[in-house]
Amino acid sequence: MAAADVGSRQSTAEAGDRRHRSRPRESITWVKIAESLEKRNDNACRQRWVNVLDPSIVKGPFTRQEEEILLREHIIHGEAKPEKTEGQIEATLSLYRSKKAKAGKQLEDARSKAAKAEKQLEEEEAGDDPPLPPQIDPPLQPPQFVLPLKARMKMDHMEIGRNPPAPAADPPSPAGKIPLQGKETNNS
Known about the structure:
Elements: H1 3-9, H2 13-21, H3 30-36, H4 42-53, H5 64-77, H6 86-126, H7 149-160, E1 177-180, E2 183-186
Antiparallel strand pairs: 1-2
Helix pairs in contact: 3-4
């Protein structure tokens, strides 16, 4: 469809006025009205009148009171309300049903969470804790690690704040004498 065709298919205020003046009376049908308009069929003319141009249509959102009446009357009479179109009624009912379903699901989720929390609290209060393992006589002691003697001595001195004693060295040779093949020499 070219851009010119799109513009010609759009309804203008003038075309709406022509349709309004062509409002069906006893002898006028939607087919005759469509013939007087270019590129429109009878169904398009009727839909435009019913959904947009009819001055008895109240545009805007439904009020709370209208929603309650709509729901009550919809059950009895179906989708017919003089000042609202079928599309408006269907959309409002669909929206209301989805909101109600969502609210019901949220309420159900909240109730199930509350029931789970209450059940858990009851279990805790009832003392249904898992049984403890049997006691062993005598109670087990953790294994003890025994440090070697040098490490224990070092730790003892660290606790008191002194330096550990130097490790015992081999005793010095007597008076600096070094034995050489059976002879004693004095190196001092």
